[in-house]
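Exercise: predict the fold of this chain.
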Amino acid sequence: MATVVGLLLIWFIALSAFALGVLYIAILIIARFPRDALASENTYKTTTQTRAVSAPLKLPHISEDPEDERQREEKVAVSVVVPAYNETERLPKMLNEAVDVLEGWELAGGEKVTYEILVVDDGSQDKTAEIALKFGADKGVLEDRIRVCKLEKNRGKGGAVAHGMQRSRGDYIIFADADGASEFSDIKTLHATLTSLTDSPSSPAIAIGSRAHMVKSEAVVKRSFIRNFLMYSLHTLLYVFGIRTIRDTQCGFKMFTRSAVSQIFPYMHNEGWIFDVEVLILAERKGIEIVEVPISWHEVSGSKMELARDSVKMAIDLVVIRCAYILGIYDDGRKRNGEKELRQKKDS
């Protein structure tokens, strides 16, 4: 009897090891590893005092020594990263609202907020980059307050966000969707939340805009049945995979201290629509405090998301992200050299 039990145990262990090995290989094959930025993608253009478009200028990087960076660059309190793909129609309105809020923003004591807006053109096929620069000239937002970085090859929203977040100068850095669906003035509430959590941008903290309070509102109730069905399905899947304290993971209005950006975005893998979840997973793994902040939001037409197809991709990506971290295929920074070797093996 003991022999039979022993054999069954050996078979069970062997089968489990085989299944785990198959799962590891499958996730490794599917897992995403971002490409390196091309040389031109580490540059930007801006509108000069003469309202001309500047020559390409070098972007800073979050990994550079902060003191050296501050000596080269003007100190910026708030950076706004705007990922944009074929956004000639919606971007000017969003930028206009953002500039009006930022120009009129005063901190305690009457000090005006210094800011930059970094538009990351994600390989657009229209004139998104040109429109952003023209807006700067027409609005009189000159000399680096609006910077435009153009990616030669489309990376996806997550890739554009990660690229811009790592190349921003601000003490506090927010990414905001180009559609203007979020009320931009709520940036002040997110900023106040972060400064209440920590008195220094060198301490990691995140404030994320949340639409969870609007679930029963007219803006959500009147959406199509399929959109609401997919929304609730995603929430259920997120709960199963351990994202249980954040009620709205997908709102495109999230602000980070500079320290939080440096601990999260250099280690991002997913560049698709579900990238927000990986941001939260990395923050959770590193013990970074996250606070949800209710914001105003409204539906805007012209979404680049293809609902059925992209919802399936998001579900698959969510499974891959969670499994890749559990299996050690993805790392949060402690095994970066090992991950490069994996990527090289995968590409070879």
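Check your answer against the key: Strands lie at 43-46, 57-58, 76-84, 115-121, 146-150, 170-176, 205-210, 253-257, 289-294.
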